[in-house]
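Figure S4 source data
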Amino acid sequence: MKSSALLLISLLVSVALLASLTESRLLRHVTTEFTPDGVTPFAYPLYKQCDSRWGKDLIETGTVCAVGCLMSSVSMSLGGHNITIAGQPSNPGTLNAWLKSHGGYDSGNDLEESVVPNINPARITWKGPILTKTGLTPDQIKAYLSDGHSVVIADVMNGRLFVLLVGWDDNGNF
């Protein structure tokens, strides 16, 4: 059983988007095949942005399938922390619909990050992006992933592809 201190921390979810590693540095560390011996400190649902349930839904001018990687990553992070959207479980469909009706996108299909905490201001804080010339070190990423209340979404293609980081393996892959 979890201690009351850990339970309290898990109830105060902080969505910290850390889209900060440079493309070349991060691509050395991000893997799509997570090995069984890897470390996954926190479980998140897996939502594919091209899922038939929401992939064809429009954001502004592009579909969730075509341009919804950041929003889909945010929906997984909210879902993993049991944060609902207007009483519904978080997934790319429910999050996209909420964002569209609350000014969550600009005309170029980009997520307006400052709108996300309005889903549940008591449980969501947007602390990113954290941008540095060298990005975050693997140890910094591991610390964020392990603290139980931060979420790391990495920009792996200079604003064209975002992925939710969930863990790492012994080879330094995230």
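Figure S5 source data
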Amino acid sequence: MYLGYLLHEMRNYPEGLEHLISSYQLKCEKTNTVYYIVKCLLACHQEREIMDWAVIGIDLSHKEEMQKRNKSPDPSIEEDLKLLMAQRFELLNIYGNICQKFNEHGKANEALAKAIELKPNRSQLWFSRALSLIELGNTGGALSCFDRSIELNRNHTRALLHKGLLLKKMGYLQEFEGFIDRVLELEPEQITACLYKGRYIMKRFLSDDPTQISQEQFNQAEELLKRVVELCTINPKDNTNIVYKALSTLAKVYNATKRPTEAIETCQKLINHNPSAVMPWELSGTIFQALGLPEEALRRINQGLVLEPNNVTLLCTKSRCLLSLEETELAISAMEKAYRHHPNHPLVRKYRPLVLLYSDRYEEALPMLKQAAIDLAIKQKSANEPPNPQIDHYHTHIGFAKFNLGECERGMSMMDLCIKVDPNYGTGYVNKGVALFKLQKYEEACKFLEKGIELDPLSFRAKNYYTQAQRICFYKN
């Protein structure tokens, strides 16, 4: 037995473990022996075995305590009891923390509660117990444990951080922000705090009202997210998910703030970081489509569809890219697939009638366009939202469908109304120009198409009709 202790002290843990287990099996069933077995197992990272031996050690410590207390008073017994309690405490602490690693939070909570009874002024114990209580759904108990941990150590950054995250989950966002700020004040490079603070600000920016975020807050959030990526690059261990969250937030923000180069570069970092993630293929494809580069957009979208064949955003973007390349049948096919799998998705409801309309399927498109305009108006009224220009934009789409179905005068009137209500909407001018082209009024068509191109330089349809109209005007003159 003593050789086992000696080998442990010499850090020869495998041999020490072997001798200690042999001693235990030879009837040396004492807490002290098991305690050193657990210490050797801990050094050898044999965590499953630790759980079994820790339970044995804890049970033995109770038996030995009863035996010692039943003996006649002896000054040496007090010293023995003090050592026994110290070993029991450490076994409970080790067992509780390892149970947490294996998601056995009921056992972890019980062990840590007993450890707290022995040493109630250990901040770390209260913090560890709080984590298990969260997993057990006891948020009230977890908050109390966090409070006690912070009371014992006001600079316990992990307790401050996790209490803040729990408050966020409970909807107390102002309090959450206060705790995260305190963590960053104590530890400016705390990766998780940087991530959550940066994402919290950026999610508010990406909401329906970005004006609630000041430029200073925006700059701070961008800097925090960049710092997360930099810190994780320096120390990449176990930070894969954190890096992904930081980069994906930055990519979405760059896209929303019309910074396509930075957005695409960030998407490429995401792809390099995790090629099997759909989001960067989806976002970069959408960006290239918006930039008027449908071929590159399709390359990325198709890669995303390999990973997730029924992704609604990818299918809708693919349909729009194919439409701009005048591959109308393929565009409809992609959109119909999106409709089959996601019939009520907002993107499908918005773009399906438009794809049908600009693929010359006017009869199918017209009732959908009318219904979409009605749905949007009802939504706006019920939510008491400010006027949505998209409702006015439906005038030109419905007007264009009616024009092509023979209601020329009514169709023209609706297209004119769209231009009058929103003179900066390029498609309004393009539709009017295409209608005039079909009426063989080529010079007038050129004026409207030119204005449409000025407002929407990436409109393939406007450019195609404008080129044809110019050529006809040239030969006529």
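Residues 1-8 have pLDDT under 50 and may be disordered. The chain is about 80% helix and 0% strand.
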